[in-house]
Amino acid sequence: MATVNWRGVFPAVTTQFRSDFSLDIEETLRHIDILLNAGVHGLVMLGTVGENCSVEFHEKVDLLKAVVAHVNKRVPVLTGIAEYTTSLACRFAEAAQSVGVDGLMVLPAMVYKSDKRETIVHFRTIAKATDLPIMIYNNPVAYGVDITPEMFAEMADETKFVAIKESSGDVRRFTDIVNFCGDRYILFCGIDDLLLESVAAGAVGWIGGLVNPFPEESTLLWNLLERGDFERARQVYRWFMPLLHFDSHPKLVQLIKLAMALKGYGREFTRPPRLALEGEERNWAVQRIKGAIETSPFKKQRDF
């Protein structure tokens, strides 16, 4: 089995755009520097939060090439694979490998809701197209395909499958996966507002959306959890929870980018059909974000 050092905080990095919706690689790299300076342990480019399906194939390759060169092996760089067909997913996996990414986070095929047999063939076919280690991303709520613990056990013979991003919303899945598969897979929490519960159930990593605007607070929370200081971790988690709920909102990308803009960590622009928040919805989000900024536990981290 491929050997990887994936654990800790891996932000699902936003893709930055200009006001005309063109790709802004330089601003994306500036944001990555903020994340690295805060102590994140890896990066996941072009996931759901990275607006994978809103970025053209050639733009994805250009972005990954720039990120890999900029990061220069300081932390692992993974890329999401979220395509409409298995063949296109294989093509992108090959392109991602050619520019030097460290691994893939593979989703089921988009739009079509594959059954068990089709889903497994999709993942196995992508594994054959690349030498890279693969994290399988399970998010049935968003994508309509559930990869069950039994399916992970069936796929355990493929050595390139090394990790699981579990985002079913059922924290019991971590225990079920371990019961079916032992320690075969590295387990990552994929839902921000289930982080503490997921770590308690065995997750050793967190792929987080709200890490983007709050990387310092996220690494603080992770460090407390990792050293087993659940009393202080709960304090930070309770402060963070109103924002972590954004990760389960249909407009999570707009909410995360709005928070980034208010922190000075990036731009708010998203590609249509996603539109900027406005009216009461925007006021609600701004109030919640500003309140969190003003009461950030990172400002008084000596207490932690």
Structure commentary:
The protein has 304 residues and is an alpha/beta fold. It has one domain: TIM Barrel, CATH 3.20.20.70. The chain is built from twelve helices and eight strands. The chain has helices at residues 25-37, 57-71, 86-98, 116-128, 140-143, 149-154, 172-181, 195-201, 215-226, 230-244, 252-263, 279-294; strands at residues 8-11, 43-45, 77-81, 103-106, 134-138, 161-166, 186-189, 205-208. Strands 1-8-7-6-5-4-3-2 form an eight-stranded parallel β-sheet, covered by helices on one side. The longest helix has 16 residues, at 279-294. It starts with 7 loop residues before the first strand and ends in a 10-residue tail after the last helix. The model has no long low-confidence stretch (mean pLDDT 96).
C-alpha Rg (nearest Å): 18 Å
Number of strands: 8
What strand line-up does the widest sheet have?
Answer: 1-8-7-6-5-4-3-2
Series of secondary-structure elements, N-terminal to C-terminal: EHEHEHEHEHHEHEHEHHHH
